[in-house]
Amino acid sequence: MSETKKQKKSFFSKLHDKYRLVLMNDDTFEEKISFRLTRFNVFIFFGTLVIFLVVATSYLIAFTPLKEYIPGYADFNTRKVLRELNQKADSLHAELRRKDLYIVNIRNIIEGKDLVDEMPELQSSQEFTEISELSRSREDSILRAQIENQITYSDWSPEEMDIVETRGVSQFFFFPPLQGILTNHFNPATRHYGIDIVADKGSPIKATLDGTVIFSTWTLTTGYTIGVQHANNLISVYKHNDVLLKEEGSYVKAGEVIGIIGDSGTLSTGTHLHFELWFNGNPINPADYIVF
Known about the structure:
By secondary structure, this protein is α+β, with helices and mostly antiparallel strands. The protein folds into three domains: 2-69, no CATH class; 78-116, no CATH class; 173-288, Glucose Permease (Domain IIA) (Distorted Sandwich), CATH 2.70.70.10. Helices cover 30% and strands 24% of the residues. It contains five helices and twelve strands. The protein has helices at residues 2-15, 39-63, 78-110, 138-148, 158-161, and strands at 18-24, 31-38, 181-184, 194-198, 204-206, 211-219, 223-229, 234-244, 251-252, 257-261, 273-279, 282-284. Strands 3, 4, 5, 6, 7, 8, 9, 10, 11 and 12 form a ten-stranded antiparallel β-sheet that branches. The protein is rod-shaped.
């Protein structure tokens, strides 16, 4: 027991033993700098140095941008940026659904279906039938070029065609979409919301007013159909075409050719144009405002 106590005492006593650290010139052996040290002082110095380095490193990682370079840490503004992007994405999604609902209701009006308040969810198991594109003949390409290059004309001046704040449909100056014979008149009681105009095969169909094409598609019942959105919630629809010359999003002027008369669709009974006008979501009789 006495030997172990002596060893312990000698160990602690050695911590306070004094040593001298001398820096000398190697050539002249002249003493330059000297330090008096003990083991205890050396332990205290290096221990304090280690603690300082740990604290300084932790501070740099926690409170400076240096932490961005360490895997697992993100930028200070990452959460804020992600939150703003998430809000913008939600707003864009809501706006797209609102516009899709608007287009769906327009198509439902044209096809005689009921309006919907919400967009239907797409079913993952829903199957779509692909329609292969018909090949163009040389004659068809020549006809397209002739129709698209045709000079449009108007019976009214540009000042008259510029529609400003109007009070009703009577303030519009309509361009006849087709010159021909009316064979079937406007009759909402029989769900016939337009008029049928018969003309020669290959006759061009023209836009009745300036506007933007909101749909240019093909359906089983109405065939090749095109719709144009005009000013003041006015929409014109042209059905049973043989060829459509404008795509969705195209801007057209009054009298500009947008299609060729045809006999497409199961509801068609011959070569003719089924023409509709919709004002504020309600069908109106085109014959009341246009001379065919």
